[in-house]
Amino acid sequence: MNFGHADQRTLLVPDGLEGERVDAAMARLFGLSRTRAAELIAEGLVTVDGSVVAKSDRVSAGSMLDATIPSQADPLEIKPEIVEGIKIIYDDDAFVVIDKPVGVAVHPSPGWQGQTVVGHLAAAGFRISTSGAKEREGIVQRLDVGTSGVMVIAKSEHAYSVLKNAFRQRTVDKTYHALVQGHPDPLEGTIDAPIGRNPKYDYKFAVRADGRHSVTHYETLEAHRFASLLQIHLETGRTHQIRVHMSALKHPCVGDLTYGADPALARRVGIERQWLHAVKLGFEHPETGEYVTFESTYPDDLQHALAWIREQH
Known about the structure:
By secondary structure, this protein is α+β, with helices and mostly antiparallel strands. The chain is built from seven helices and 15 strands. The chain has helices at residues 22-30, 34-42, 117-123, 157-168, 241-248, 263-269, 300-311, and strands at 6-12, 46-48, 51-52, 64-70, 87-91, 95-100, 148-154, 173-181, 188-192, 195-197, 205-207, 215-223, 227-234, 276-284, 291-295. Strands 5, 6, 7, 8, 9, 12, 13, 14 and 15 form a nine-stranded mixed beta sheet that branches. The mean pLDDT is 92.
């Protein structure tokens, strides 16, 4: 087997680990997760006193534990890759504004194997020189993988600090359109409800008393038989904020199965993600101070779903 780079490690089992399972002993001695240790054992890359072992075998003090640990790709490494569908709306020395398609993450993260906005910008030759973790350079805001629309990425250090601060101070005008099930009552209003991680599912969020302050303003643009088209202004920018707040009102975004949308309606409108689009972004240009706005039209899947909803009487 050729592992590229592999780390060969040999250690004697100390008295304190006498009788431990091999996977547990490896995790302790080599600083690995139990899962990773079990994978290496299953691949036959671990021996105790020269013999291949099973993860549930026990180790004795003084035994010689040998492991070949192949190096793993860094999940946060930026892979330059052109992403079909990312449109550049505006570009200057300070920042770039893009139209993000669905299915693209903003930056690399553990567990995400797909395409990223920063990977696209790197491949397209954009120079981004700002502080922050390497994989998040220039990132002053995020959109979910399943949310499309307009977003800004800072290119210079100065623009990064000014824009980061503008988002923090909530002086950026963030406008979204969401197609939600049913008809919110009242037709326009403000949802002020704290959001925190859902204790049952680590990938979901929920309204919780101990969550972070979160405020969403909405108004109804169109009311149809099965759904309403809302215009939403975010005052705060929590992860999944609009999706969690609309779900808490019992009017989840159409297609948002994670947060309680009706799968039958999602199928009928032909949508496989939440109907949520960042339509407009407005802020003061970090260099000139002039107020600038950028807009994005609905992508085809959302347009098609809305057309279906409009036709139902």
